[in-house]
Amino acid sequence: MKTYAIILASGTAQRFDTQGARLKQFAKVSGRTLLEHVVELFEHTEGVNEIIIVITPGYRETVENLLLGGNYHKVTRILEGGATRKESSHIGIFSIPDAEAQVIIHDCARPMLSQRIIRDCLEALQQHDAVDVAIPSADTIIRVNKHGFIEEIPERSQLLRGQTPQCFKLSLIRRAHELAAEEESYTDDCGLIVRHKLASVYVVAGERANIKVTWPEDLHLADKFFQIRSMNELPEDAATLSRLRAKIVVVFGGTSGIGESIVQQAREFGSTCIPLSCRTGCDVTNPTMVRAALEEIARQHGRIDAIVNSTGLLRVGKLATRELEDIMEELRVNYLGAIHVCRAAIPYLQKTHGSLTLFTSSSYTRGRALYAPYSSAKAAIVNLAQALAEELYADGIRVNVINPARTATPMRTAAFGKEDPATLLSPTQVARTTLLTLVASFTGQVIDVRIKNATISPTCTDLQNSMDNHDKRGS
Q1: Among the residues of 139-207, which ranges form H helices?
Q2: What 3-state class would DSSP assign to 384?
Q3: The whole model's pTM is what?
């Protein structure tokens, strides 16, 4: 029996203010649109045979162009949806030619769906004809009358918050839509099964991360979830780093601190790793030097597979009392230097579908007193990488950012003096995470490197606060 995944991407997203530029399904998170994330998920789901996409009328060409670069083999139909979710779901369901099949119906607005949920749903379909996905409600739910007064407060332990996907035997969900053909009131497909008492609906445990992007700020929450997922997907085994063997890797800032550790470890795993810095005659503030250095490396080795820019300059002092030229030099190294590296790197990485990795600082999330230029430049690096991840996605170039906690480097010692080693990362730990990121498949991510056994990182704290706020508002 075949399994079809129907992706509902036909909404007009009236609650999602996109400034008139795009529909919600085309909003980007981590370098890709919500639609691409969901298609990618089902493309790599074992057991899913075909993907049917139901889109907003008038956007077929947009979707076709979007999917051309993705090499998606399972997408067999792109259908224009109806005026309502019910109509769009109906169009997808009745496009399936089989007499019987398994059907997974998923909202494009939930890009964080996990393989675990899909696997549990497909397993449940072996025993049941209809399957829903839900999580416990963290909030008290109240029922209010038309005058605005509470009439009932149901027992919270019996309440769940519905998610998608919803999964069915094809004949069952077809029958439900046939019975509901003239009905206007509609919540979701499982609701039709329950209303017409066609079958019992089994509930699979969902996940809090499987959020629905409803409001513009939900994009930021989804981006955080993708960041955490990417960090969790970084493997720790040496076999993964064997992919570096015979690769040509260039490290700007590679003669000191973290950059020097990256060069050493990359060579241990068999790559040809070339360090560049002012010591080797390459100043990142000079775009001519940067271009010439990469041209010579490409000439000697025939290609460049990965480029890392770990160059940094940190100077401490109040903004009002520092010399302007001193501030400008810091910005030239930390921000404009990264611009020069990125511009020069693109032509080489386009040829190899390579990886570009930049460095930020934990101060990017909140400016720090006494090094405002450094903090603001590192925030700019994150925005630069995220923008480039989108620009270069079609070229197959992965762009990511390493965000290390305080690290024992010569630059830090010069700025802050001697510190307790237990409070600092080692450059070797940061270097290993950097190399794992170089060979990873994701793009547009900020990868946090934290001291093991340390307290919760600021990123995780921000994520938890965002999740709490999302729960209070609802999805």
Answers
A1: 170-179, 189-195
A2: helix
A3: 0.76
Dump the DSSP string for 210-262: -----STTHHHHHHHHHHHHHHHH----HHHHGGGTT-EEEEETTTSHHHHHH
Residue 296 falls within a domain, yes or no? yes
pLDDT tens sequence across 65-95: 888 877 799 999 999 999 889 999 999 999 9
CB 411 within 8 A of CB 314: yes
Residue span of the structural domain in which 168 resides: 3-214
* Closest C-alpha among 335, 337, 323, 229 to residue 283: 337
CA distance 455 to 457: 6
Q: Give burial (CB, 10 Å; 0-12/13-18/19+) of 103.
A: buried
As a whole number of angstroms, the distance between CA 204 and CA 118 comes to 10
Whole-number Å distance between alpha carbons of 207 and 117: 8
Outline where 16-153 has alpha helix (H): 34-43, 60-68, 85-93, 115-124
Among the listed residues 169, 195, 165, the one whose alpha carbon sits nearest the alpha carbon of residue 183:
195
Torsion sign, CA atoms 438, 119, 70, 227: negative
Tell me which amino acid residue 29 is: V
Structure tokens belonging to residue 169: 């035997």
- Domain assignment of residue 127, yes or no: yes
Instruction: Give the whole-number percent of the chain exceeding pLDDT 90.
Output: 68
Task: Find the CATH number of the domain harbouring 356.
Answer: 3.40.50.720
Domain shared by 39 and 158, yes or no: yes
Residue 474 lies in a domain: no
pLDDT in tens, 109-120: 999 999 999 999
**CA 223/CA 446 separation, integer angstroms:** 10
Using one digit for the tens of pLDDT, what is the confidence trace for 260-319?
999 999 999 999 999 999 999 999 999 999 999 999 999 999 999 999 999 999 998 999
